[in-house]
Amino acid sequence: MPKKIIKETLLTLPEVKQLLEERAKEELNYMQRITLDYASKFSKLSVEEARRLVNELISEFGLKMETAVQITNILPDTVHELRVLLTTESKTFTSDELKRMMEVIKKYKK
Questions:
Q1: Which helix (H) or strand (E) holds 110?
Q2: pTM of the model
Q3: What SS3 state is found at 8?
Q4: How does pLDDT run across 55-94, given as a tens digit for each residue?
Q5: For the chain, how far is it from start to end, CA to CA, in angstroms?
Q6: How far apart are CA 106 and CA 77, in angstroms?
């Protein structure tokens, strides 16, 4: 019997990592193990920091959830990298807004 999707939620890499680590106590299938390995290698923030950054990007700059999650997962280093991630937004951001966004992102970088 095929599985039924009950709910779909966007997650950051740290959230995916945490979720799969909890499930790993039982057993993970092949795809879940690969995903956990990827999330472990590329997660740059804690779950709490990732959620705070997503919320801050959404509330302060009016970003879509999808865009905020991508920015949180990648943590761009330059305004140019940030611009690439913002191409899906319907709004055009000024240079000052981009600089402020980079300041917010840099607060969370380790």
A1: none
A2: 0.90
A3: coil
A4: 999 999 999 999 999 999 999 999 999 999 999 999 999 9
A5: 45
A6: 8
DSSP code for 91: S
What is the rounded distance in angstroms from the CA atom of residue 10 to the CA atom of residue 27? 23
pLDDT tens figures, 29-51? 999 999 999 999 999 999 999 99
Separation between Cα atoms, residue 47 and residue 55, nearest integer Å = 12
Amino acid letter for position 15: E
Is residue 67 within 8 A of residue 49, CB to CB? The reply is no
CB atoms within 10 A of CB 73: 20
Residues 6+ apart with CB under 8 A from 44: 13, 14, 75, 109, 110
